[in-house]
Write a structure and sequence with these properties.
By secondary structure, this protein is of the alpha+beta class. It is 33% helix and 18% strand. The protein is built from twelve helices and 14 strands. Strand 1 and strand 2 form a beta hairpin. Helix 7 packs antiparallel against helix 8, helix 7 crosses helix 9 and helix 8 packs across helix 10. The radius of gyration is 22 Å and the shape is globular. It comes from Pseudosulfitobacter koreensis. Pfam families: Gln-synt_C (PF00120). Its cofactor is Mg(2+).
Length: 455
Amino acid sequence: MMAENNWLEDLPEAAQAYLEGRRLDEVECIVSDLPGIARGKAVPASKFMRQEYFHLPDSIFFQTITGDWGEAAGADGFIERDMILRPDMDTATAAPWTGDWTLQVIHDAYDRDGVPVPFSPRNVLRRVVQLYRDRGWEPVVAPEMEFYLVARNIDPAKEIEPMMGRSGRPAAARQAYSMTAVDEFGPVIDDIYDFAEAQGFEIDGITQEGGAGQLEINLRHGDPIKLADEVFYFKRLIREAALRHDCFATFMAKPIAQEPGSAMHIHHSVLDVKTGENIFSDADGAETPQFYHFIAGLQNHMPDALAVMAPYVNSYRRYVKDHAAPINLEWGRDNRTTGIRVPLSSPGSRRVENRIAGMDCNPYLGIAASLACGYLGLVEATQPKPEFKGDAYEGDGDIPRDMGQALEGFDAADKLQEVLGPDFGRVYSIVKRAEYDEFLQVISPWEREHLLLNA
């Protein structure tokens, strides 16, 4: 039980500032499901003060994006067991769009014996991070979030359209890095900044990307679990900011045909726990063998991890030549056509960027899968292919082209699943296959247009 007289004093600084001089009304007790949707309960603050945990059925992790259920309980049948959800008070943050004074708190999922639930996304990421720490390494990530602001769309049969800007004209494409284009969305962006400030999040920058109404938010590098928490929170706050201005924010990988897709680029570096130094650079500032091993891990294992980084059928529409998304796993220095990019940096901040992951992935799982691939490369001490110089779009694709192919690779990837957790791998595959089977039952407009009278 929390002590009612001092638990508020132990909140993160931003949460305390948000509540200063006000009475807390409600606490949203939340956990991320497999798609990254916040599940949980909203409880009065007075009740939250008295509870150490609450219960939810583990079936929330067996649910597909459409609300159906994968038979993920396996041989034991579909048994909904109650989990114990314990708050991580370091994640307590404002929900500034609500009508009263509300906090959100991310909870960790345990079974009745106190063992972390292996298919909870936050636990999957924690498992991977711990594998690094067991070897004396500290992984560091910096995610980049791309998304679209689009006109309200309540008819799934209608194509998605760009939102209307301040000028009264629809957002225009091909305006990458334009400040005028950013200004078109000024009121939405102002609310994003205000919500982020209330929640204690530091935005490293907002830019206009190449698509019509497409924006990118960069976050400062840090602990993978903390950054995944922030992306999880950010996706919600961005949606709420958009709704205030009669538009939608979408994190679909490819919401608009003929426009670039939305990625969650992940920058990685790894520190030596004892020295605090970047293991990708030696004392003279040169690239180390471990730098190359990490790249090799991404090249060798990301095809099998793609089902996690590109979790829906729509995800694979993003991997199109010359549309700012990679089609292969070549690596290059400061080369945005490759799937693996080494940005310009000082030796101390040398890092490797994964440009494969889509913004539609669960941030915990996308970061976990990316780190898992790099970890396997470090452990296996493998060498990457030679650095690619030139336009990687001129080469062949070497990643799965659809969800079915990606799931086949994931199911056969014993090493990857051992890092992520075999129980997670089993549940994830069953849920995603259920989604894929449901998609295959839908007849598309293209099929009706071209096959109805011609096939």
